[in-house]
From TrEMBL:
Lineage of origin: Eukaryota, Fungi, Dikarya, Basidiomycota, Agaricomycotina
Cited PROSITE patterns: PTR2_1 (PS01022)
Subcellular location: Membrane
Transmembrane segments: 145-164, 176-195, 260-281, 358-377, 397-421, 433-456, 483-507, 519-541, 547-569
Bias-annotated ranges (Basic and acidic residues): 1-14
GO MF annotation list: dipeptide transmembrane transporter activity
Protein name: Peptide transporter PTR2B
Family: Belongs to the major facilitator superfamily. Proton-dependent oligopeptide transporter (POT/PTR) (TC 2.A.17) family.
Segments for region (Disordered): 1-21
Keyword terms, alphabetized: Membrane, Transmembrane, Transmembrane helix, Transport
Membrane association type: Multi-pass membrane protein
Length: 603
């Protein structure tokens, strides 16, 4: 069955005097070739099975960079909670557990749950604000490759400061160590954020294949689809992120057994590989040069389009923005010959690109509520695990089940589930996938709320503060519930990420114009920063006695917001052809017609 992306590539062979004629030439001529394809007709597109292409070597080099960067990031941030929250274990100077390692919890600064939560939330906020820096610099001045290379050095400097904050002399002065930790978070955030905005689009740019037919060894003729390949690229890109985040597995044991300076040093040494891989692979990469700043022109387009629709009545304004002719005042073709305003220096295609960018950015605005659920596995669920029976398992080790589950499930989705849906003609479009992610994330929070309720009931201390329940000798006195029971939310959130998070990266790349891909990716990632700011406002209720209520509230929020999201944007799935066609040729005059046909052909 033909996908939306590929139908968008159809180009009429000869002009027709009417819209109906254009549409017929576009979509009904079964012998018409797809523009830019290698001998693929519309009939082939509609009847042959679609498969992905092989990923280029340069894409795997970008994957290796992301792997090393994510190992370093998660290998440090995943153990921040214990490092900040818990005090030094009995007899320790490094944070390592010296006695009762079976149920002991590593710690260092002893600042408590709320300070730990606040600092970790700031870290998430900051690292997802700084992609704007990398996105704008890459699109306008440096290009993606140079931006990644320069900011990898910045990130490395931040990790060196982090190691210094965790040495025994620093830990002996907790306030000074906390200050160094804050400084390292700022420096690492600048580097990691700038890298983050550019790695995602750079990996997809490595694939330059075209739509073509291929005969399999079985004799079946299939269509090799770039859109299916891009979807596969981002699945494996996300797998690399989660392979890297498994570095936190070793970090948990290193912190417990050898102390925090060792746990932070190992990821820093691994990050040293990043600049070398980038320099080594330069001759293999497909590099996109900077295109110059178009942000000002983008704002002008929006301003001109919005001016006639603006009203004191907000409902009237919203209706005007959603009208089909909203962008017309910004198009040169809207004005009679010789009457175009001088400030309009662009063509119709650029206006369509801006419109597509705004559509994508509007979709991302719902994601802060999704990331609220994800943020719970980043720290609060680690605190939940600290109040359960560990039996030798570090409490902050369990969160690694999230990336492990993603690593296991991505091949299943890429090779089994998604191909099965395509064979059955089921169009599991981006908006539907994101909605499924919201639903599963809410289910994860419901699981966590129920689990926390039972921890309260079985806790020996009966004060609803499980992580601080101690025996007379100072060792942990946990709930009898085994720590592995908390694995459910981590696995469910992992499934939700495959639906929502991966699709958001894919959506940001496919919907963003070539001149703004890094900026749009930065906007997508900025939603995590907004989520952190929203989460920060909930600091007062981020305490263990209120965890059950907090998790349950997030479950309801995810389901409610997800449903509103689907109702709001389900029409974008019908316009997938038109949205993906923008910027791929001279189609500015046919966008509305393509959208009409897409709407009729949507499943």
């Amino acid at each position: 069955m033909a996908t939306f992306d590929e139908k968008a590539e159809i180009k009429e062979k000869s002009p027709a005097p009417s819209i109906e004629g254009k549409l017929e030439d576009h979509f009904d001529a079964s012998d018409s070739f797809i523009e830019g394809s290698e001998g693929v007709t519309q009939h082939d597109l509609d009847t042959l099975r679609h498969v992905g292409d092989r990923l280029p070597y340069s894409a795997w080099l970008v994957v290796s960079v992301e792997f090393a960067e994510r190992w370093t990031y998660y290998g440090t941030t995943n153990i921040f909670n214990n490092y900040i929250r818990a005090p030094l274990p009995r007899g320790s100077t490094t944070g390592a557990v010296m006695f009762d390692r079976a149920n002991g919890v590593a710690g260092a600064l002893g600042k408590g749950q709320q300070i730990s939560f606040a600092l970790r939330t700031f870290n998430s906020f900051w690292v997802y604000c700084t992609p704007w820096i990398g996105g704008i610099l890459a699109d306008t001045i440096l290009g993606r490759y140079n931006t990644i290379l320069i900011f990898s050095v910045v990130c490395l400097a931040g990790h060196i400061v982090l190691v210094g904050s965790a040495t025994p002399p620093s830990i002996a002065h907790p306030d000074a160590a906390l200050g160094l930790l804050g400084l390292s978070i700022v420096i690492i955030g600048i580097g990691a954020g700038a890298i983050k905005a550019n790695v995602s689009p750079m990996i997809a740019e490595q694939y330059t294949g075209k739509l073509r037919k291929k005969t399999l060894p079985s004799g079946e003729v299939v269509v090799v689809s770039p859109s299916v390949t891009i979807q596969s690229i981002y699945l494996w890109f996300y797998a690399a992120i989660n392979f890297g985040s498994c570095g936190a597995i070793s970090a948990s044991f290193l912190a417990r057994d050898h102390g925090y300076w060792v746990a932070f040093l190992i990821p820093t040494l691994i990050f040293l590989l990043v600049p070398f891989v980038l320099i080594f692979g330069r001759k293999y990469y497909v590099l996109t040069p900077p295109r110059g700043s178009i942000l000002l022109e983008t704002l002008r387009v929006i301003t001109i389009a919005l001016a006639p629709k603006w009203s004191i009545n907000p409902i009237a304004t919203i209706r005007g923005i959603r009208a089909k002719d909203f962008w017309d005042p910004a198009k040169p073709s809207h004005y009679p010959e010789g009457q175009r305003p001088k400030r309009i220096t662009w063509d119709d295609e650029f206006v369509e690109e801006v419109g597509r960018t705004c559509n994508a950015c509007a979709v991302f605005l719902f994601f802060p509520f999704y990331w609220l659920c994800y943020s719970q596995i980043d720290g609060n669920l680690g605190t939940v695990a600290a109040g359960m029976t560990l039996d030798g398992t570090p409490n902050d080790l369990i969160q690694n089940l999230n990336p492990i589950s993603i690593i296991i499930l991505i091949p299943i989705f890429d090779y089994v589930i998604y191909p099965f849906l395509r064979r059955k003609g089921i169009n599991f479009t981006p908006i539907k996938r994101i909605y499924a992610g919201f639903l599963v994330a809410g289910l994860a929070m419901l699981y966590a709320a129920i689990l926390q309720h039972f921890i309260y009931k079985t806790l020996p201390c009966h004060d609803n503060v499980p992580s601080e329940c101690l025996k007379p000798d100072g060792d942990q006195n946990p709930s009898p519930l085994n720590v592995w029971i908390v694995s459910g939310p981590y696995i469910l959130v992992g499934i939700s990420e495959i639906f929502a998070s991966i699709t958001s990266i894919e959506y940001a790349f496919t919907k963003a114009p070539a001149r703004m891909k890094s900026v749009v990716m930065a906007f997508s990632q900025f939603q995590t920063a907004l989520s952190s700011a929203l989460n920060f406002s909930l600091t007062a209720v981020n305490t263990e006695p209120r965890f059950a209520w907090l998790f349950g509230s997030f479950a309801v929020t995810a389901w409610t917001v997800g449903t509103i999201f689907f109702i709001t944007f389900r029409a974008l799935d019908r316009r997938e052809i038109a949205l993906n066609a923008v910027g791929k040729g001279d189609r500015a005059g046919f966008i509305d017609e393509s959208a009409a046909v897409a709407e009729k052909s949507t499943l």
